[in-house]
Amino acid sequence: MMMAPGLRKFALTAHIISSVGLLGAIAGFLALAVTGLTSPNDQTVHAAYLAMELIARFVIVPLAFASLLVGLIQSLGTPWGLFRHYWVLVKLLLTVFATIVLLVKMPLIGYAAHLSAETILSRADLRATGIQLVIHASGGLLVLLVPAILSVYKPPGMTRYGWRKQHEQAALSQPVFEQHA
Amino acid sequence: MADPRSYPGAPRWVKMSAIVVGVLVLLLFIRIHMGGGHNTPFAGGLDHHQKPESGHR
Known about the structure:
The complex is a heterodimer. Chain A is 82% helix and 0% strand. Chain A is mostly helical. Chain A starts with a helix and ends with a helix. By secondary structure, chain B is an all-alpha fold. Helices cover 39% and strands 0% of the residues of chain B. Chain B is built from one helix and no strands. Chain B has one helix at 12-33. The model of chain B is unreliable at 42-51 and 53-57 (pLDDT under 50). Chain A binds chain B through residues 86, 90, 107-108, 110-111, 114-115, 118, 122, 124-125, 128-129, 132, 155-157, 159-160, 163-164, 167, and chain B through 5, 7-8, 10-11, 13-14, 17, 39-45, 48-53.
């Protein structure tokens, strides 16, 4: 079912806001992760990891799901489709992959906040956890930059399914006298 | 002559991306199985700290 132009524009706006917001939130998360890893001040480290947990739980996870959901609705409600063009399919796969990794790593973020809240900081444990968080935040940022670039450039290339659908629709849209000519 | 309606195949950027992803996955696999496994986030801290999940890595 195709969306009406007004609804389509609304979905596009929601998709851009959630996707770009997600990128910004992860960039902020990365800045805090680097601060938590490098700061010599215990209070700063504690504040950084506490803020990271809050940002991940209340900003990054909701935005990731919003981006994924609105993207699905938008692709299914427009002629682009979900499986017809490689750039849409790659975007979907990358966003699903990033969301799964995020959910898998949520306990690690909570663990870092828990460690940093202890009276005597275990620097070795916190450092190992902090390195993991910096790596994952950097990776997540790089992975989610690709869908943003693909959305702008929309590189050509149809999947086999998209190719078949396009030819089926072209055959259906041809007038009857042309088919019998 | 080839049928113009036949599927032309995946574009070059998709093939190149697939190769890059394949190489990255292979490198990750090698790193995990050839000595990167000791540097886990919870390594060394399990005896002294409460772990947020019960699974072991």
